[in-house]
Specification:
Layout (H helix, E strand, L loop, with lengths): L1 H86 L11 H11 L11 H9 L8 H39 L2 H9 L21 H34 L1
Helix pairs in contact: 1-2, 1-6, 2-5, 4-6
Amino acid sequence: MGNQTSTKATAGAKTGKYLKYAIGEIILVVIGILIALSINNWNENRLENKRADAFVKKLKLQIENNIARVDNQIRNFEFTYSVSKRLISIIGSNDITNIDTKIDSLVFVNNYDYHLNLDMNTIIEARENGDLALISSDILRQSIYNLSTLNETIKERERITNEDLMSLFIPYLNKNFNWRNLGFSLFYEQDFGKSKLYKNDNYKMLYDQEFENHLQGRIQYNKGNLQIYNTIKQELKNIYLLL
C-alpha cells in the first residue's frame, strides 16, 4: 500500500513537472509569436511611413507646379476679361476711329480656348494603389478629394466654353470678319499682306446684336471660369499648407 502511494506521488510530481514545462513552452511560443508580430507590425508601419513620405514629396511638387499653372491661366484670362469689358463698350458707338484695330483686339482676346490641364497623376495613382489612405489627416484627405471634384468641374466648364467658341463664335466670325487682316495688323504677317477681299466693313459687326450676344457670352464664360480657377488655386494652397 505504501509503495503504491509513493508511486502515485512520484507520478504526480512528474506530471506536475511536465505541465509546468508544457506551460512554459506555450508561454515561450506565445511570447515568440507576439515578438514576431510586433516586429512585423513595426516593419509594416515603417514601410507605410516610407511610402507616405514619398507620396507627400511627390504631391507637394505636383501642387507647386499646379499653383504656377493656375496662376498663369488666371493672369491670361484676367487680361482677357479686362480688355473685353473695355472694348465691348464700343459696340453701337458712332466713334469709328481706328475701328478695325479695336475690333481686331476684341476678336483676338476672345478667341482663346480654355485648357487648365492640372497635373493630377500623383493623386490618381495614390487613389489606385492605396497611398491616399496613408494620409493620417482627415482634413488633408478631404482637401485632396475637393481638388479632384473642382478639377472635374472646371474641365466640364472649359468643355462648354470651348464648344461655344468653336460652334458659335468662330462660325460667326468666319462669315463676318476678315481673319487675314487680323494676322496682318496684330502679328505683322507681311509675307501675306492685307486681304484684297476686305471691303472695310468689319465695323458692321458693331451694330449687329448677334455679335454683341456672342461677345457677352464669351465674357460671362471667362468670368465664370476665372472664379473656379481662383477657387482651385485656394484649394491647392490649402493642400500645400497641410502637407
